[in-house]
Design a protein that fits this description.
mainly alpha; 11 helices; about 0% strand; disordered N terminus
Length: about 210
């Protein structure tokens, strides 16, 4: 299968690298049954969970087209589960169907807005070249989950692309504080230091 789409040239390339990481499957989580749920509803929900687990495994093994089949069925069987829509949107993204991914992410946000949903939406918006919308989505994701390094990195990447280097540096530094073992985060921080003329700090991150 073809890899997921890279971001357009107007977007800072570090966001493109992160898109490949962040469009990975989100974990399938069982939804609580509603008070009026019928026996057949429970059967459909159980089948949806099986399809989500299978879809997640297929995504992990980069079998994206097959993942779409399972996750589309899961979303149809459990239409009120935002996780199903986020997973299906991620699968569509990886197959290059970005418009369809955006539809699923919008539906996920309508059903249950969370940091992951806003992050995924921001990735799609950045891919389409709408940096303002992407930045707003990343900021919202950061508000909902300030402890995620990947979100801080995406915010900083757009700030860097807007020549707001000191703000970007603080975002990259925060990302490294949250996940110091990630080589991309340290590389971006090192390059930010270098851009600001702080060569010794840059070397410390890049070595």
């Amino acid at each position: 299968p073809q890899p997921g789409p890279a971001l357009g040239p107007s977007v800072n390339p570090s966001i493109g690298a992160l898109a490949l990481l962040l469009a990975a499957p989100v974990g399938a989580a069982k939804t609580e049954p509603g008070p009026r749920q019928t026996y057949w509803d429970r059967i459909m929900e159980a089948q949806a969970m099986r399809d989500m687990r299978e879809g997640a495994a297929l995504l992990e093994h980069k079998r994206y087209d097959e993942a779409v089949k399972h996750l589309a069925r899961a979303a149809a069987q459990s239409p009120n589960d935002p996780t199903a829509h986020k997973m299906l949107g991620s699968a569509y993204y990886w197959t290059g169907k970005v418009d369809m991914a955006e539809v699923e992410f919008k539906e996920a946000l309508r059903l249950g807005p969370d940091a992951q949903g806003h992050l995924l939406m921001g990735i799609v918006q950045a891919w389409k070249g709408d940096n303002d919308a992407a930045y707003a989505s990343f900021l919202k994701a950061g508000e909902l989950d300030p402890e995620r390094a990947d979100i801080q990195m995406n915010i900083g990447s757009i700030e860097e692309g807007r020549n707001r280097y000191q703000e970007a540096l603080e975002r990259f530094r925060r990302a490294v504080e949250l996940d110091g073992k990630h080589p991309l985060y340290r590389f971006q921080l090192g390059m930010a230091y270098k851009r600001l003329g702080r060569d010794e700090d840059a070397v410390a991150q890049l070595r």
